[in-house]
Amino acid sequence: MPKKQYKTEEIVLSKKSKLTEQAYLYTFKFKDPKKKLKFTPGQFVMLSFAGVGEAPISVASSSREASNTFELAVQNVGVLTEYLKNCPVGKVLGIRGPYGHGWPVDKIKGENLIVIAGGCGLAPFRALIKYLVEEKDYAKKIQLLYGAKDSQNMFFKKEYQDWAEVVETHFALDTKDQEVKGCVSLDEGLVTNLLEKDYVERDAYAHVCGPPIMAKFVIEKLLELGYDEEKIFVTLERRMECGFGVCQHCAIGPYYVCKDGPVFCYKKLKSIPGIIEVGT
Amino acid sequence: MKTKELKEKFSTLHKKYEIFAPVRREKRLKTGYINTMSCVEFTAEIPEYSYKEAFFPSRQTMFKYKGEKFTKEGSLKREQVVLGMGLADLRALELYKRVFAEDEYFQNRIEKSVVVGFGKSPLSREALAVLPFDLFITQEEDESYKFLSRTDRGSKLAQELALEISEDIEESKKDEPFPVSDFYQQIKSNMEGDKAAKVFEDLGQKCIECGKCTMVCPTCFCFRIDDEQGFEEDEGTRKRVWDSCYYHEFSEVAGGHRFLDTTKDRIKFWYYHKFARIPNEYKMLGCVSCGRCTKTCPAGINLEENLKNIFDSSKEEGNKK
Questions:
Q1: Is B253 on the interface with A (CB under 8 A)?
Q2: How many domains, chain A?
Q3: Would residue A4 count as lying in a domain?
Q4: Of the residues A60, A83, A139, B139, which has the maximum number of CB atoms within 10 A of its CB?
């Protein structure tokens, strides 16, 4: 039976707050007050801009209750994001979705979790972290290992203190330009180095999001440190046009990043050549 | 019925329906929408272009926008007759029916289409029973024509044209009507195991990435979604446009990174899709052996040869050990 797969709902940009020089947190609400976005952490929507096109963006707000308003954290990297940056509050855009499979929230219940993010790779984690902060005792110990160029390029800086009660946060900056509030430690260097520290839980789920090269080195390190490959999850970035596994742009081996991902268990990915090649 | 009479019977069809059919232009048999039946050729020859344009247009308008408001577009206004599809093209249509099972644009076109197949006798009734046609014209050995109907829509069209149905074809009830043969099972497993690296290394040197094979292929269905501005600044259309996995932008993300970065990667992606991903997903092969890709390739790449090499690649590996 045919479905309205491309039906786009109208949304209004209601707030813009600067995250870094190149990124904003955008708050949207559906034009129709009855409409709500129901999603799970790590899922994405296709954001639509008439005359420009569409782009897949992960949802950054809390997923605990379906809501008429939602947030997207967007780094200004391409054509649509440039338009978005220049959008005035009140502008009407569109979304369809949510699509895909997000972080395995059910699996981490009562377990330790380390979240490893690089740069704007923290964006797809915000929904998960918010969920865990709101559901306080959901997981056992939660550690965030976050790497960025310098403090100016860190996402969600104002929120670390709010997360601190539930999330133990450690940062690695290429350049340690200034102190950052709300973290337990702040080192200079790569996020991969943090993994070796004694304070990092070894019996834990590991969730990874960052540039491909970072993901590769992080997973390599995780495996070296003895993490179970079934407990390593990583989110992938690909070009997407449809969002539901037809257009072929995001196909990797037998999977579609849009439909079967964007979050994948490493065990599933390791047999596909050229995706994350550990040890090369 | 002979050719002259057949042409007469169909001569006024364009008055009631949109017609998509094979036509010869400058000696080359192509397909397309036509205005008059006189240019239609009834032939079992495989046209250079496939029939996919009739069901999955190269530029499908999905919405029009004015300001921020999107309005759905893209429904067919008139019913269409898609004329002359051979067995390979009908098989490709069956694949599309599976791929676009939930797609409102494709389904709208299917609902408004009468599919008329064409083939030379003898034809196995079992093979015909699994193919998605409404009416089928067979060319008999004595150059006469017979008409087979598979659906009510087919019978209705026959009635309208005063054609005598010689036989009703019953729809097959088989669960998996298009089994993948052992040869292709081996190819699938070699693609999945990345056994044919050498084959793709060589193809990467040969292929010029023009994308012609993907355009003429009846099963290729990659697409992208483009916004096209109209005359006014704030109005335009959103279109679904055929794309080709041979183009380097195919895998490009914001910031410029390309996940399929070399010719070799992209040609392998094409083979993987046809011979591994489609069989896994849709329980049939992603190639209908129409031969169009080989015929159209300006670099002389031969699909059949490559398949043989991919098939052999696992044997070679065994010999090395």
A1: yes
A2: 2
A3: no
A4: A60
